[in-house]
Amino acid sequence: MQKLSNAPSSPSGLAASSASAASVQELDSSLQLALTIIQAADERKGGDIKLLRVAEVSLLADYFVIVTGFSKVQLRAIANSIANKVEHERRRAPSHTEGMAEATWVLQDYGDVIVHIQMPQEREFYNLEAFWGHAERVDFQPMLQQVQAS
């Protein structure tokens, strides 16, 4: 597995997520979906993957997954990988997908999890991590290791 960036602390500087200590079976379904999405993005070499828990600060979703793709072809491959893996493992399809034609910012809306796959220029310009700076950054690496071990 490639290096995943996961910003281990919350805005307050405390440990990011109490869920990271939970067993895989105890993870809520939204978090399990987010982890599946992260795995799929990583399989297609998505870069600088971040998981934000936005449930406490927004009604839009429980989590945002933010991923960088480095070409239009890669953005589409990441989006397709996510859709296929989520369909296969979670039996879910996105309710809406935007941006596949332009492939500079692809958005996949799974309801409780929204995926943003962006080219580096869009990621830097829109800076979703800063815009949602009050959202909790989730340290997903320990949870992924649990999922892979089980």
Question: Can you walk me through this structure?
Answer:
A hairpin with a 6-residue loop joins strand 3 and strand 4. The chain has helices at 29-43, 72-90, 120-126, 128-131, 141-149; strands spanning 47-53, 63-68, 96-98, 105-109, 113-118, 136-137. It is an alpha+beta fold. The protein has a 6-stranded mixed beta sheet with strand order 3-4-5-2-1-6. The chain starts with 28 loop residues before the first helix and ends with a helix.
What characteristics describe this protein?
about 20% strand; six-stranded mixed β-sheet; globular; 5 helices; about 150 residues; alpha+beta
Biggest sheet overview: 6 strands, mixed
* Amount of beta strand: 15-25%
Helix content: 25-40%
Number of strands: 6
Strand order, largest beta sheet: 3-4-5-2-1-6
Q: Total number of helical segments?
A: 5
Give the overall shape, derived from the CA principal axes.
Answer: globular
- Structural class by sheet pairing and helices: alpha+beta
The parts where pLDDT drops under 50 for at least 5 residues are: 1-22
Mean pLDDT: 85
Q: What's the gyration radius in Å?
A: 14 Å
Distance between the termini: 16 Å
Task: List the helices and strands in order.
Answer: HEEHEEEHHEH
